[in-house]
Amino acid sequence: MSIVFGTDFSERAMAAARTAAVLARRTGEVLHLVHVTEYGSTGRTSTTDEALRRELSSRLEALAAELRTEDTRVEFHLREGPPDEVLVEHAALVHASLIIVSHHGQRAPRWRIGNVAERVVQSARCPVLVVRAADPLTAWARGERSLRVLLGLDFSPPSEAAVAWVRKLRTLGNCEVVAAHHYWGADAHVRYGVPLSPESDVTPEVEEALRRDLTARLGDMPGNGAVWVHLDPSMSRPAESLVALARKEEADLIVVGTHQRTGASKWWYGSVSQRIIHEAPVSVLCVPASAVSAITIPEVRRVLAPTDLSEVGISAVRHAYSIVPAGGTVYLLHVLEPVGGPVTSPVHTPQQERIAEVLRGLIPPEAAVRGVSTRVEVVNGRRVSEAINQAAERFSCDVVCLATHGRSGLSKALVGSVAQEVLQNSTKPVLLVRP
Q1: 69 has which bridge partners?
Q2: How many whole angstroms separate alpha carbon 28 and alpha carbon 22?
Q3: Angle between helices 46-67 and 11-27 (to 10 degrees)
Q4: How far, in Å, CA of 262 to CA of 244, rounded?
């Protein structure tokens, strides 16, 4: 593996180059210095091209010699073409784990939107470190100080990749991590199926569920330094919220995942990472979802088993118990049409009590012997599939296991398919049991 650093020999680039060299020494990777020329056609001759190449090669060689040590291997490359495209291509060629660029530099022609750093972030398959303030990163990589990291945390694949990179940073040196989650209170209540409160934008139940799930998403953080979750319920833009928090917490580095959206998708949803690159007062590490290389086996501890109490619906229950290990929990769920109470209303009506007793009768006798516990839930739901997915989030289930009635054609069009709707909208893995 290697680190690619793009330089234009400016003062900022030279400071960032020293940071790149220290990071390469810290990680034991080869540092590739890359300068990209973008020649114009006017007045261009083979003689002037050759003279420019000699001058630039000499400057690259001198820079490589300055950065090279016994512990740091440095190679240099003079390339021609659009700078952002060439840097991304070279990173792929040398299997780079990281691209480093300084925060400046416009790409010609001028009518194209964005600078080199933003365009590299947009298309690179590995993380991109945009260096704005080099000194804190350099001192941290040398082991002289702790690094204060602000991590943008949500439930997306790019965010998962960003978390993985924060773990890697903590193996290299001490890092204090503030994991910030920006959200709208109404969206969070819909996610967990908890009614909104007239007294506050976010209820304690939703805050507790968010903190639980985000903490679980962080997992076990290696290394030294405090790690805590910061919840930010507001109507502001996520980028603005993160930049403001970075200033408040005096962060040295912001780490965010990037969806690398293009075209209409980028226009509609916007790009949080690009706005942060523009506005952040500190360096920014942008991590695409493709940067996650570790393949791990997920652990199944909690399984949601929804049932409509039909013969087919009951058939999936035993499969739910079959995939839960000792110490795990199966949540038996039945969704009723609304009767005036909230979606998450506890079992309290005679009808709900009767259904809860029926659900308890579905618990296999060997479940207790195998150390599998059961929790029975009867809820009201305007839409069954939505109530199921909300329950899966609320109870932090690892898998949803439900039966499909196998309808097709006209019967499916008339009756609909709860299983299909759950499958389309669930953020959890779904195990479908056919009749």
Answers
A1: 72
A2: 10
A3: 50
A4: 26
The DSSP symbol for 291 reads G
Bigger pLDDT: 298 vs 29: 29
The number of CA neighbours under 13 Å toward the Cβ of 224 is 6
**Tens of pLDDT along 250-282?**
999 999 999 876 554 454 445 788 889 988 999
Structure tokens at 26: 């810290």
User: Which residue shows structure tokens 């506005």?
Assistant: 279
Total count of residues recorded for the chain: 435
Q: What is the mean pLDDT of the chain?
A: 87
Q: What is the pLDDT of residues 53-96, one digit of tens each?
A: 899 999 999 999 999 988 889 999 999 999 999 999 999 999 99
Q: Is 348 exposed, middle or buried (0-12, 13-18, 19+ CB in 10 A)?
A: exposed
Within 13 Å and on the Cβ side, how many CA atoms surround 370?
17
pLDDT at 110: 34
Q: Which residues of 380-406 are buried (b: 16+ CB within 10 A; e: fewer)?
A: bbeebbbbbbbbbbbbebbbbbbbbbe
Strands 283-288 and 128-131: antiparallel
Burial (Cβ within 10 Å: 0-12, 13-18, ≥19) of residue 190: middle
Q: Residue 329: pLDDT band by 50, 70, 90 thresholds?
A: very high
CA distance 165 to 83: 25
Q: pTM for this one?
A: 0.83
Q: Which amino acid is at 281?
A: P
Neighbours of 110 (CB within 10 A): 7
Q: How far apart are CA 62 and CA 33, in angstroms?
A: 11
The answer for residues whose C-beta is within 8 angstroms of residue 413's C-beta and 6 or more apart is none
42: burial class by Cβ within 10 Å (0-12, 13-18, 19+)? Answer: exposed
